[in-house]
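Working notes for the structural subgroup meeting. M.R. asked for a predicted model of this chain before we commit to crystallization trials. I am recording the input and output together here so anyone reviewing the notebook later can reproduce the run.

Input as submitted:
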Amino acid sequence: MSPTGYTEDALVEQPAIALLAELGWETVNAYGEFDQGASTLGRETRAEVILTARLRPALRRLNPGAPPEAIDQAIEELTRDRSRMSMAAANREVYQLLKKGARVPLPDPEGDGETVEVVRVVDWDVPANNDFLLCSQLWVTGEMHTRRADLVGFVNGLPLLFIELKAAHRRLETAFTGNLRDYKDTIPQVFWPNGLIILSNGSQSRAGSVTAGWEHFAEWKRVGSESEAGRVSLETIKKVPFTFLYQAVTTDDFVLYLANHAKGAAYPAVNAEDFENADVLVASNQLLSSFDDKALPMAFLTHRLKAANTTLRRTRDLLLPRLISGEADVSELDIAVPEEALK
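Returned structure, recorded in token form:
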């Protein structure tokens, strides 16, 4: 693995994106959304946080009998400015629209009064009827500042999921104190429809709401049901830290296992199934976390030094022939040479 393989993107963000893709989310990198002029997501500006290009067809699909004006009014209600409201009040108001649907008044075709049309926003009974889009590196502009969110999950065009990621060697709490707080102040509109916030560094993950303090962000321990044993991490909301897996699969015993399962005469190789069927002894989550805290900084340092060595080797290979041929003249350079190097 190259030195760049130990970045937050490679170790945390890409596995998170892959995990959600496995769950059926469409994924898109939104970093260059406006590079060609028009937004690839259908936004007019970076200040917009609701993707009406996805919301409108979703509402039409969920409400096949609703007249166009009802869909228009529902979109207007979902997208209206709530900046004068508190974060909690704005979030509560949108929550009611998500839960109960948007109630929009329409002229009564049989009289002079009005009727109320309830426009469903989310299909809570059949999840597959909804539209799931995960955007990475999404730029959002507030009143004064622009921020880039790691991952934002849109359900029917509404940003219901917000995921803030940190490098695996960083303390998870910094995702809350150093990033989430700032986002709430600078781009509050992205949290008005929010239903869930996830903070993760790959090996540790916590989930909470827009109004929760750090102490109320909880570990998400169960995948299938409440009856299963608790497990803490990004698959439960990645399973084992990369540092531990790397050490486990480079031991003499594991290498011998791979050698015994390699197939092919000219170029013996193992397949993915051999890896999946291998037995690896895994410690408790507490020990894994402690191991990761100590091992990951050393892994980063090792690969930074390898990168530095690679740069030095390339510089040597470039300059040495020129020095030998006389093409490069360093006779007038003032270079301090340690005395011990001259002995």
